Amino acid sequence: MMANLPTVLSLRHLFVLSLALNVSLILRMVYDEQGGNNNKKSMEVYNHNILKSRLVIPSTSFANSTRKDHSGVVDRVIKLDHGDPTMYERFWRQMGDRSTIVIPGWASMSYFSDGSSICWFLEPEFAKEVVRLHNVVGNAVTQGRHVVVGTGSSQLILAALYALSSPDALEPITVLSAVPYYSSYPSMVDYQKSGLYKWGGDAESFDKEVPYIELVTSPNNPDGYSRQTVVNRNQGLLIHDLAYYWPQYTPIVSASDYDLTLFTLSKSTGHAGMRIGWALVKDREVAKKMTKFIELNTIGVSKDSQLRAAKVLKTISDSSQDEESFFKYSYKIMEQRWKLLRAVVESGDLFSLPKFTSAFCTFFNQELEPQPAFAWLKCEGDIEDCESFLRGHKILTRGGRAFGDSPKYVRLSLLDTDENFMLLLDRLSTIQH
Amino acid sequence: MMANLPTVLSLRHLFVLSLALNVSLILRMVYDEQGGNNNKKSMEVYNHNILKSRLVIPSTSFANSTRKDHSGVVDRVIKLDHGDPTMYERFWRQMGDRSTIVIPGWASMSYFSDGSSICWFLEPEFAKEVVRLHNVVGNAVTQGRHVVVGTGSSQLILAALYALSSPDALEPITVLSAVPYYSSYPSMVDYQKSGLYKWGGDAESFDKEVPYIELVTSPNNPDGYSRQTVVNRNQGLLIHDLAYYWPQYTPIVSASDYDLTLFTLSKSTGHAGMRIGWALVKDREVAKKMTKFIELNTIGVSKDSQLRAAKVLKTISDSSQDEESFFKYSYKIMEQRWKLLRAVVESGDLFSLPKFTSAFCTFFNQELEPQPAFAWLKCEGDIEDCESFLRGHKILTRGGRAFGDSPKYVRLSLLDTDENFMLLLDRLSTIQH
Question: Which Pfam families match (chains A, B) (predicted)?
C-alpha cells in the first residue's frame, strides 16, 4: 500500500512526521529546563498553529520544491542570509481590510507633497502617523524633530552621511561602527568612492585624531545587544540606527533622544517591499541637506508607499490596546522562536547564542529579555567557518567576516516564515544529534 | 450695487473677464495667421473646457490665493520652473476606476519580487506592461533587453554611471552632455564627489582623448530638439535619456535601439509622485551592476508604486485604440498649448521660441511637429537676464545658465494646470502690449 502512494505525498508525510517528532523533543527539553507549566499552553497553541499553517499555507513553496526535485523539502535550501521579514504577513492577513489602501489613478501625481515642510516630498499623513506611533510606543522623542522620509533607511544613511560631511573638507570624513557591524555599512559607504566620506572600520580600534561619523546600531544588527557610542570624542558626529528598537525585539527602556535617528518600516511592521524609512532630525540644516540628497538621488520618495505606510502605522496605533495588537502578536512569536531556538542550541555542544540581560519595558510594563530579529550563532569547537558548515547542511546564513568579526559566527534571520523556521530547528537538531 | 459685492468675488469676475478677453484676442491672432477654419472648433472646445474647469476645479487654489492677499490671482506667482506634470490629472480623473489600485496590508511585504530576474526587485507585472507599452507605441526595441526598474529615472542615471564606470580606473570617467543640457545633470553627477565619474560639461567642446560617458537626451530637455550623439569616439559610452520620447511630445520616427535607454513615468503618464522609471539594457553585466547600485542605494524600488505603475501602463495600452486614448488626449492638449503660446509670443517682439521641423509619426500615422513639454523661451533685444525679467512679472522659470547656456533663455513648464497655463499666456500677453 505505501509503495503505491505518490512519492511527493509520502515524502511530505514523512517530513511532517519527522518534524512533529523533533518538535515534541524540543518541547520536552524546554520543560525539563524551565520546570514550569506556564509556557505549555502557548507552546502547544504555537506548535498547533505552525503545523496547521505549514499544511495549509505553504502549498506553493512545497509544490515548487517538490516539483523541482522529488526529494522534496528535505533537500530544500533554506535562505536565512537576508532579513526578509515575511513572518509578519500572517498578522496583516488577519487584519483583513483594516490596512488596505485604495489609490485612484489620478491621486498623488505631483512631485510635491507639502510645500511648507523642509522635506517637501513628505506626505503629511505619513509624518503624522510616525509621530503618533512613537508616542504610542514611547521609543523616540519626536518633539523638536524634523521628519525626513527616505526610500528605506538605506537611503537615509547615505543622506545622513552627505548631510554630516562637508564638500570643502580636505579629506573625506571617516565613518565608523563597532564590530560586529551591519554587513552592508562598508559597501554602502564606499561603493561610490565618495570624496565626502570613507569607511574607517571598527569604531573600537579607531585611534586617529580626525573628525568622524559613528554609526550606532541599537539593538545591534547582527548580535542584538543594546549599544552606546564607542569613540566619544568632540569631533564625533553620530547616526543612531534604531531599526530594531521596537517592543517585539527589545525592551523599550526609554524614549531615544539623539540628534539623528533612523527607523524603517521593514523591521518595525514587516513591510520591506514598501521601501519606506524615516529620520528624526534635530538640526534644521541637517534635515535640509538630507532632503537635498534625496532630491538629487531620487527626486523624493514614492507617494504611494508613504500613503500605504501611513495606513499601516495608523492600524497599529489604533489597535495598540487590543488583545491582538501588532506588538503583542509579534512579541509572542519572537519569544516562542527564541525559546525553541535556544532549546535546540542548548541540547548539544556545537553551537552557542548570545546571552541577554532583561530590562524593564515601558511599553509592556514588565521586565523582559531581548529577542532579536537575528540570531548571532557561534560554531563551537573545531568548526572555523560556520557559514560554510551550515551551507553544507542547506542553511544559508551570513558569515561573521562580513560583519568585521570571526568566521566562527553567522547571522541568521529569525523573521522568515514558520515553515522555514521549523526547518531550521529540524536541521540544527539533526546536525547536533 | 457693485460696491456691495464681496471683494473676492468681484476680483475673480474681473479676472475671468480679462482672461476671456485675452483668449479671444489670441484666438483671433491664430486665425489671422493660419487663415483656416480647421482649428476653430477644437480651440473653442478647449477654451470652453479651460474656462469651465477654471471655474469649477481650482476652487481651492483660488480660495487660497484670495484668502492670502485680497489682490487675488492677479498677484499670484506662477511656478513653471519645475516640470511638475499636473496637466495629466484631469485625464486620469476621467478614467475613473480603470486605473485604481487596491493594495491589502499583507501584500508585497518581501524585499524580493522575482528571484529569476537579474533585477531581483522588479515586479514581473510591471516589466510585462513596460514591454507591452513600448510595443504599442513603437518607441523602443525591447527584444534582447533587460528591464531594470528605478526610483525615478534619476536613480537610473546614477545607476548607469556606476555601471559604466570602473572602480579600478586611475581617473574618474568624464560625463558629458551637449549644451543646453538638463540642469540637474551637473549636480547629480558631482554631489557625491565620486571617484568613479565626474561632470565634464558641454559635449560639443570636449577635446580630451580620454574615456567618457555621453548623456544624450532626446527630445532634449530643455529645448525639445531631437538629438544624436555629439562626441562619437571609440572610448565613448552612451546613456540615452528618452524621458520625452512619447507621441504627445514628438513624432515617433522609429523604435529606439540603443545600449542603455531610460524612460520614466513622470513624463510619459504624468505620475511624478510614484517615482518610477525604467531602463532597457542590452548588456547583461551592465544590468547586473545597475541592479547592484540600486541594492546598495535603496535595497530595491517600492513594490506599491511598481504595481500601480503596471496598472496605469495597462490602462494606456488597453485603451490605445479608443477615441479618448491617453496619447490622443495629451497630444491635443500639447498641440493647443503650443498654438496658443506661439500666438502670444509672435504677437510681439520681446520673446522667441524654437522652430521645429515636422516628421512622420509612426504612432499617429501622420506628419507631425514636435510640441515639447518645456518651452525654451528666449528674451530678445536688451533683456539679458530673462529669468529675472519674468520673475518681475511673477512668472518663475529656470534660467539658461543652469542649462549651460545664455541667461537670455529660460525653460518654462507647459505641463502645469490649465489655470496656470492661461495665467502664463495672460501675463506674457500683458508684458508685450
Answer: Alliinase_C
